[in-house]
Every structure is written in C-alpha cells, then in structure tokens.
Amino acid sequence: MSHLVGPQLKVPLDPRNGGGVKCPVYMNFTMDECLTAMTCCNGVATCLYETNHLVKALDWAYEVDVLHKNARFAAKPLFDWEVFRPNPPCLEFHRQHLLGLVTASDVLLKLGNTGAAAYCRNVGNTIVCSLRSVMEQLSLRREVLSVGSVHTIMQFRHPDPTIYRSLEITNPELQVRGSWQRLKWADSSKVTSRMAHSCFIYKSRLYVCGGQKSGTFEVYRDIWCLDLVRMNGWRELPSYRRPFLNCPMVVYEGKAYLFRGSSTVDYLDLEREVWGRFQTHFVNARGKREQWPYSEDLTDFVAHAVNGKIYVFGGKYKRPLGCNFFAVLDLATKTWRHLSGTQDDLPLKPQYDEPGVRKNLGSWVSEKQDKIYIMYGMADRQEAAIFESEFASSDGFVYDDCWSWDIAQGKWQRERVVGNYPCPRAEMSVSYNQTTKQTIMFGGYSPALPYYVEGSQTCFGFNYFSDTFVLDHSVPGTPRWKQVITGSFPTYRAQGQLITDPATGRTYLFGGYTNTDWVPTGKADLTKSYGDVWQLRVDVPGGLFDEIDWEDERRSAQLGPWMACYSCGSVGVWKKCGGTCDGRVFFCTPNCQKEGWPQHKQKHGCRARR
After folding, report:
1. How far apart are CA 33 and CA 404, in angstroms?
2. Angle, vertex CA 12, rays to CA 8 and CA 13, nearest 5
3. 0.90 exceeded by the pTM?
C-alpha cells in the first residue's frame, strides 16, 4: 500500500488523516490503483481473521468500504440510496467490495453481532442484484456470496437468543459486559405505555411527556415525573397545551424546551412546574430577518442544548422522505440561524459534503460540548411512495454514516464507524454518558433488513432490535464501538428513550413499541407499546457494574419475550416462579423447577406461597 499512498498516510486511515472517511489520496486513485488497494486490504483482512486478530481484521475490511466510498465521492454525485457503478463498468471493483463485506460479516458473526453481520451480507446481496448482467451475478454468487449464506444469516434476530445466551467476552476491545434491569417503584402508579414520546432527566427525576399508545389514534399531552432516587411512584404535572408526537424536549438552566416547527417555542419551568412560551424568528448572517422555513408539524428530528443555544437537525415537515435542514436558536436573542441543509421547498441535489435528508436518527454532543454528532436514521422512501412523492420506493433505506458538526468551525465531517459497530438503523435510542465517556445505542428499527422466520415461508421486510452498543471515547484516537453483552435485555423495540442522569451517571430506558407479528406477545394488536423503565450498567469505570451478580443474572435472564430456564439454561417461553421472589427466575418444566428450587431458595430467599 505504501507505494500507492506515500509515506505520510497510514493505512487503515487514522486520526492523522483527520479521522474522516473522505481521503484526497484515495479520491485521486485510478481504477487500477483502487483495485490494487482493495485487493491488498482484503488480503490483509482475511489473514488477520484466520489468525483471530479480529480488531485489525475489521479495520482492514472496513478500509475496503472506505476505498469504495472514495471512488464514489470522486465520481458524479449520487443520492445515498443509489447504487454506485464505476464508468467504465468493472466487475472486479464490485467483487473486491463484496469480499470486504463478507469478511466483515464473518468477523462480526464470530463476535455475536448478528445485526451488523446480516447488514453486511444484505448490502452485498443488493450489489449482486444490481448488476445488469445475469452472468456477472452468477459469477459473484458462485465465488463470493451465495444465496444460501444470505438466507441463513437473515434468520437471526438481533440479538438472537439462541446465540446470545452462550456469548462470552472473547475480545475486550470489541465487547464489554453489561446489565439491563427492569426497575420497580413503591406504589402502583404508572404512566400509560407509549411511543413517539419525549423523555429527559433533571435533578435525578425522569420526565415523560406526550406520545401515543400504539394501535390507537389517541395522542397525549400529559407529563409525568418519577424520582429516580426515592422511586416512590409517578407524579403528574400540568399538561402541555396540545397533544404532540416525536418532538424531543431539551433541558437548559432549569427549563425544558419544546420546539415543534412553529416560531413559538414552549418551555416547562422545572422548578416552578409551569409552562411558558416565547416568539422567535430567523435571521441571516447580516442579522436581517428571513422567512420562516419550517411548517408547524416538524417531527422525528434531533435537538440539543449547548451553551445557551438549541441546535435542531433533520426530521420531517413537508417532504415525507425527511430533511437535512440544520438550524440553531440563540436563547438570549431568540433568533434562529440556518447552518446547513436544504429547505423542503427547494429541490434536493445529491452531494457529499453534509448529511443527507433523514428522520428518526441518533445524535449526541461531545464531552467538551464542541461537536454535535448525528448517526444513521432513514430516508423514508416507503412513506414517499404512500404520498406519491419524489424518490418514492417500496424498499426502505437506512443510512450507514456518522457525521460530526464542529461548532467553532461551522462545518461537517463524515466520521469513520469502526469496531464492533451497531447495524445501521432508525428509531433507536441514543445517549451520551459523561461519567463513563461513552455513547450508548440501544434498539431501533430497520425497514431495509429482511428477517426470515426459520422453518417457514414467512419473511418480514424489516427488523426490530434489542442489542446494546457503546462507543468508547475514553481511549485516545478513533473511538471504537463495542457490543454490550448482558444477561437479560428489554424486548425488541423502537422509539424507546435512552437518557443518562448527569448527577449519578446512571442510564435509563423508557417506553417504545414493537410489531407483535415480528415479536410474539400473545396479543391480537398489530403493535404494542411499553411503559417500563430499565437501567443499564456497563463493566467500565463509573459504569456501576459492581452492583451486579453477573452469573446469577445470566441464569435468570429474560431475553426479550423469552426466558432462560434457571435450572438447565434452555431458552423459551417459560413459567416464572410462583414463590415470594415475585417471578425472579423461570423454569421450563416441573422437573427443572424441582431440581433448581433448593439453589433458588438459598440464593434469592424465595419461599413457597401459602
């Protein structure tokens, strides 16, 4: 590689390249140079995988994809959902890209990351299907990616209980232990289960506002509060003036701000517990007032409060596909400025210098409050088809990218997604934990990753997730993703809200929904929403993992809608113990209950009910 890139550039690309995906050296490659580099990277990745050097194997396999992306960047711009074909056509280019994807898939599957492993093979399958020549398709099917290998990996859930139950930490650079525990409170009060709601924490109190119960047309405007220290039950606060969906609330200096696309911004004074509002307007770089760009029904966006300003990116207001409009509100002057992106009234043009149009994305702010990150999300081409809008398609599309906005410099950079990374998705839960210096991602939904039900002809064109990942920012250099291996995990869901208490460093999950055909619940409804609260602990300094009995938790695990038998460890829909432990453990048969009862009785103090 050194004769291609020169002595100044280290491969795989590292922070000395600025840390980003774009590389001028790669973009200037001829096709022959690009193929040579891809072949070299694939060879190194394969050798490293075969010798079990999984961290470096992933880095080199990912470098093949980086080379592919830079070849794309150097050509005529395309929208992200369009397949790149070099001109003139080159089958070897697709073959090398496919080899890198398959190697990455093999590594990720070995680590138990079924979601990302399935995604890599699904992308490869799309590449093969996009080839115009049937003979070329057959050649790549025979040499690199068979239909059977794609179908097999699409039969996994993410995580899949049959694999996940036996996972061990085999590579600490790519995996970490964790624990999900469902919380209980003192009284019987509870918040109605919901999706599309807003959630935040202030002074160790969890607030839930708005949203909707799945399967109904009722939209909420209520707001509830749970003291996370006392855990003495939910308390209702004054409701918002009207129902709302999919609008985040952000906290700054004792107020929770709610922006819904209107020039009027609402806020809840968290000390006085009363609502207020104020008027805002847009100004240009010279301070002159500009026309209001949004409509009043902006949803599915992300928002952050940073140093007296509220940043808003993406979401949906006119174009069903989503938008990439990025703006900032100065709370002192009550004025907005447009930072980047295209208004929905203007035509979209493909480009590679800023994030594409999207909604239901993940986002967080860096520890130093100097960068805003956005990741994944979807361009809703299926909803565009419903409304007969531009860019419509029956196929869903999720982004595989991560971008950072440098607040001081005012520019975007596309970042590398490295390590044991989460499968691209939308409607996921994301939070940055300042105590552990980690970005946490949980759950979500993909309209672009199929799921085949094993042993049947049923195929879902989508997937729900219940896997957990952390991006470790504590180590110098490019941060790597790690999968969090937990004994139990909440049921597969999307639109849950993951929030971290800045006072304690504890991370919580509330609510969300799932499809009951995809996740069996025994209910007749098509969707099910949740009103549960879970706490995540991670085995890192400050992650509170010392409070966990790891081995006991794995024996009494609840794996989404399935359970592990406390006695034999088999996974299924089992009966919970009927003793005084309130169903802490599960048994698959009366014989297992008889065998496991003495140890369960001694360990958990359970007694038979009279």
Report:
1. 30
2. 60
3. yes
Put residue 315 in one of left, alpha, beta given phi > 0 → left and psi -120 to 50 → alpha.
Answer: left
Confidence at residue 16, expressed as pLDDT on a 0 to 100 scale: 58
Counting Cβ atoms within 10 Å, is residue 42 exposed (0-12), middle (13-18) or buried (19+)?
A: buried
Q: How much is the pLDDT for 511?
A: 95
Q: How many Cα atoms occupy the beta-carbon half-sphere of 363 within 13 Å?
A: 25
The neighbour count for residue 580, using CB atoms within 10 Å, is: 14
Degrees to nearest 5, angle at CA 408 with 403 and 411: 40
- In the β-sheet with 507-515, what is the strand arrangement from edge to edge? 429-433, 438-446, 463-472, 480-486, 175-182, 527-538, 507-515, 497-500
Indicate whether 207 pLDDT > 70.
yes
**What's the length of the chain?**
610
Task: Note whether 584 and 557 are within 8 A (CB).
Answer: no
Describe the crossing of helices 91-110 and 114-130 by its angle, rounded to 10 degrees.
160
Question: Do 420 and 469 form a contact (C-beta atoms < 8 A)?
Answer: yes
Phi/psi for 382 (5° steps) reads -70, -40
71-109 confidence digits (pLDDT tens): 999 999 999 999 999 999 999 999 999 999 999 999 999
In 10 A of CB 510, how many CB atoms?
23
**pLDDT tens digit sequence for 381-422:** 999 999 999 999 999 999 999 999 999 999 999 999 999 999
CA-nearest of 241, 181, 243, 403 to 314 is: 403
Burial class from Cβ neighbours inside 10 Å (0-12, 13-18, 19+) for residue 583 reads middle
Return phi, psi of residue 179, to 5°. -150, 130
394 residue type, one letter = S
SS (H, E, C) 513-551: EEECCCCCCCCCCCEEEEEEEEEEEECCCCCEHHHCCHH
pLDDT value at 338 more than 80 = yes
Q: Of all helices (H) and strands (E), which one includes residue 50?
A: helix 31-50
Q: What string of DSSP letters covers 2-46?
A: HHHH-TT--SS--GGGTSBS--HHHHT--HHHHHHHHHHHHHHHH
**Bridging pattern class, strands 335-340 and 281-283:** parallel
Q: What is the pLDDT of residues 233-284, one digit of tens each?
A: 999 999 999 999 999 999 999 999 999 999 999 999 999 999 999 999 999 9
Region 455-471: mean pLDDT is 91
Report d(CA 206, CA 31) in Å as an integer: 55
User: What are the b/e assignments for 80-109, b being 16+ CB within 10 Å?
Assistant: bbeebbbeeebeebbbbbbbbbbbbbbbbb
**What would the pLDDT profile of 257-270 be if each residue is shown by its tens digit?**
999 999 999 999 99
Distance from the first to the final alpha carbon of the chain: 74
Residue 217 φ then ψ, to 5°: -100, 5
pLDDT range class, residue 518, cuts 50, 70, 90: confident
